[in-house]
Amino acid sequence: MFRDRLWRRDPLLVALVVLILVSFSGFALRRAPAGPQVAVFWLLMLAVQGCFAVCSWRVAASMPGTSARALAGRRMWRYFGAAGAVLVLGNVVQLGVTARDATSYDAVAGTGLQLVSIAVGIALMVGGLLRYPLGGMGRAQRLRLRIDVGTVMAAATTFGLWVFQPPAGEHDLAWALQTGIAVLVQPGLFLVAIFAVVKIVLGGRSPFTPAAGVLYGAAAVLQAGLQAVPVTLYLDQGFRPWLFAANVAGSGLIAIGARVQERQVRAGSGRHGRAEAERPYSPLPYAAMASVWLLAFGMLAFHGLAWRSWVVLAGAAVTTVLVTARQVAAFRHISELLRERDALTSRLTDLAYHDGLTRLANRGQFMSRLHEAIAAGSVTVFLIDLDDFKPVNDAYGHASGDQLLIEVANRLRACVRAGDLVARLGGDEFAVLVEGLPEDRRAGVANGLALALHGTVRIGAAEVSLSASVGMATGKYGTSDPDSLLHEADMAMYAAKESRRELIY
Description:
There is one protein chain. This protein has helices at 2-8, 11-29, 34-62, 68-100, 105-109, 112-130, 139-163, 173-203, 210-227, 231-235, 240-267, 283-303, 307-353, 363-376, 389-396, 398-414, 439-452, 482-504, and strands spanning 205-206, 274-275, 379-386, 421-426, 429-435, 455-459, 462-466, 468-475. With 505 residues, it is of the alpha+beta class. A four-stranded antiparallel sheet has the order 4-5-3-8, with helices on both faces. A two-stranded antiparallel ribbon has the order 1-2. The chain has a two-stranded antiparallel ribbon with strand order 6-7. β6 (455-459) and β7 form a beta hairpin. The protein is built from 18 helices and eight strands. It comes from Winogradskya humida. Keywords: Membrane, Transmembrane, Transmembrane helix.
């Protein structure tokens, strides 16, 4: 709905789209002489790049917020606005050259100053993209991002070298210098631009609204291809109109993207700097590797082992190595995650079945073990409750009470066998589970537990009295259940506590 209103109520967007369509149809007719055709091309480039510059400055002025990402977004669009101004300046100079002689080499292919304006403009745009923050990333995530970007860049470089046409002439030092400059100034700059775009796309935090991001991605791909086209094709009457139209379309997409961003930011629907959910992997590097291998197979099938075939095969090998490294890095990260999961599972299990203060088994583990013990055979439960524990908390504080509970836990551990289970059921109530205990030894174990918890305990500077009441119950499979056995031990423990009270009073 918003997109429909956007296009209906924005004459500038409609005009830019119409201009691109008319330029394709107009240049395709080829009825105009070469001179007027060149002049119209540079006028159109001036118009669309002027729109891009103005819209970029307006986006920077319209973006809300004072966060670090919002400030980075405004800075990026100012870079874009400055790039558009530089491109406009180069086109103005180029129109002056065209006015003197529209059929000259400089008028058609561009002067050195115009080429410099393109280089500076792209550098400003790339600088804005590279300075845009991607958000917090871990070490493993940064490594995977670098490998993914490297894979895509290796594929893009392979295609760039495949379509690149070296200058004609004798292969001397001057030719080598001219070739190096051509690679750096034309396809090289756009490879850097692709790098910036790919880094942002794979980083998962886009500085563009979705519609603007699609337009800029299409423009980057189109312009990268156009910059790899040799100058000789621009001088060819058969190719020139289509190349002119394609250049207008590429610059027009950039202008449309800026205008769409401006409109959506002004309307409040442009979620600038939106963070996308992290995906386990991106298909882009794998698609890049597959495309290079398809190109390599095609080169071998139609051209054999020519020098370009070796270049493409080298690119295929590099992308494969990078994708393999990406998989190794991913497997290592998965292994680390599995170790962290196992450690967390162990920690959660420990917390679920152990008392946090004394590190004894808790009620849940005790009841589970009691169910298993009754099903296996005879089991004896000793229920232990400390005498007069509340006055210790009241007189010395809860920290001292905790220290007393820890001491009780240590004493209980010391007087049972390795296979017996000692648990804290809650508060000052403890339990001991002993399997297969002979009848003639049960009273001795109960007395031993009571004796271990009798006397005094030093807590800080205080001497605290310690005593406990012990209740015992025995059961076996078919005659007892865990709840009734625990209840029987509880009753015996309270009976022991009452007997102690009667003796005292």
